Amino acid sequence: MAPTLEGLRQRLVEFAAAREWEPFHTPKNLAAALSVEAGELLEIFQWLTPEQATAVMSDPERAHRVRDEVADVLAYLVQFCTAVGVDPLAALAAKIERNEERFPVPGAGAGGALDVKPDVGE
Amino acid sequence: MAPTLEGLRQRLVEFAAAREWEPFHTPKNLAAALSVEAGELLEIFQWLTPEQATAVMSDPERAHRVRDEVADVLAYLVQFCTAVGVDPLAALAAKIERNEERFPVPGAGAGGALDVKPDVGE
Amino acid sequence: MAPTLEGLRQRLVEFAAAREWEPFHTPKNLAAALSVEAGELLEIFQWLTPEQATAVMSDPERAHRVRDEVADVLAYLVQFCTAVGVDPLAALAAKIERNEERFPVPGAGAGGALDVKPDVGE
Amino acid sequence: MAPTLEGLRQRLVEFAAAREWEPFHTPKNLAAALSVEAGELLEIFQWLTPEQATAVMSDPERAHRVRDEVADVLAYLVQFCTAVGVDPLAALAAKIERNEERFPVPGAGAGGALDVKPDVGE
């Protein structure tokens, strides 16, 4: 059966509890760790051309690293959310709704791809 | 009904398609954007003491920023995974299993909290 | 004789040229690499208490990592500046002047330490 | 007269002292702030094509942001080094020497540009 985010969250809670790692899992430390792991994911791509980056998963060693860093980022994001009491899925649903208002779909005929993507971060 | 990660993923795909933003959503660009947003989440905490950081959600303005940055990080992670064809939940499940082998639970009586947490990143 | 930033910059230019690494040193790649290395520096501190972090240089292995990551961050910053034609010392001097206007020194008696430091980034 | 890194360092020390910001300038906080600012520099480039990124300084608004973020990164790097007692120029000089041994210049005729640049971080 496919894992759910909530199921994985509970496994991460148990994993940390069994190893007495909770004292390290403060919001500030977890935000730092999340940023560090996002940097490790970016590291895989830093010297690649756009073409090499698009084909990253065709290299088995890089593909493993990508999956591994994705897991680390998601793990720390989930643990951060647990530490501060935020539901990440609800937060994302709310953000998508705000962005649908902030960035209306261009009307028919308005057309034309953007030169530079607007920043959806607030 | 509570949103699912897959449901949100589909909304993000439609959101980008409707605005013709797909050309920007290369794996390398999304990995960079993920790292940038993780930095923005960390920024909230950078000058806070551990105590202030733990109470971050009791300040409504900071609480909003936290939820907003969590949403941005999750959005870019999901979009990155879509771009490279990785299932983030499967990747995290596999990583938890590897970590359960790499970091066995200390036996009864081994005890004692760690001075420094080992790095679970590979 | 103590090295200067300009002298080190020239050695980095020669180092990359001799190894034919210039094609990789685009502004975008170097900005990514700089961010990745700043993450590696932060990694050293992510699970440390403020007290452990303050004493970081008393541990020889950590002290070596700190110096090594500082060097990597400075190297990529200098190489980024070379790629875009920015003088980092002039940029910092100009920023300090702007910040001296933006954050006037509190008058005598205004006193009192801040609860949270204002963000000097613009 | 052109500013020196040491001269700017002293101005940053005085700037922070006059505003009673030293309590915030712990090694851990400064490492986090450095990483955050490196992310803000990367943000300028995240959606740019390599060609747009190379021409970044021809856009006056982006050029200002680049110089501003370079200044922030350098400021926090210098303040971090002050907090831990590291000389950044000496650290970089030592690293260049180590890298000259780790990555010998290819002999005449060995030739050929690399497909992927090796990682000079240790």
Write the layout of secondary structure elements.
Four copies of one chain form a homotetramer.
Chain A (H helix, E strand, L loop, with lengths): L4 H14 L8 H19 L4 H5 L5 H25 L3 H15 L20
Describe the structure.
The structure is a homotetramer of 122-residue chains. Chain A is mostly helical and 122 residues long. Helices cover 64% and strands 0% of the residues of chain A. Chain A has helices spanning 5-18, 27-45, 50-54, 60-84, 88-102. In chain A, α1 packs across α4 and α2 (27-45) runs antiparallel to α4 (60-84). Chain A is globular and about 50 Å long. In chain A, 43% of the residues are buried. The mean pLDDT of chain A is 92. Chains in contact: A-B, A-C, A-D, B-C, B-D, C-D.
Taken as a percent bin, the fraction of beta residues of chain A is under 5%
Structural class of chain A: mainly alpha
Largest sheet of chain A: none
Order of helices and strands of chain A: HHHHH
Unreliable segments of 5+ consecutive residues of chain A? none
C-alpha Rg of chain A, in Å?
A: 18 Å
Biggest interface, and residues per chain? Answer: A-B, 73 and 73 residues
How many DSSP helices of chain A? 5
Distance between the termini of chain A: 37 Å
Share of residues in helices of chain A? 55-70%
- Overall geometric form of chain A: globular
Oligomer: homotetramer
Strand tally of chain A: 0
Features:
homotetramer, 122 residues, mainly alpha, globular
In short:
By secondary structure, chain A is mainly α. Chain A is built from five helices and no strands.
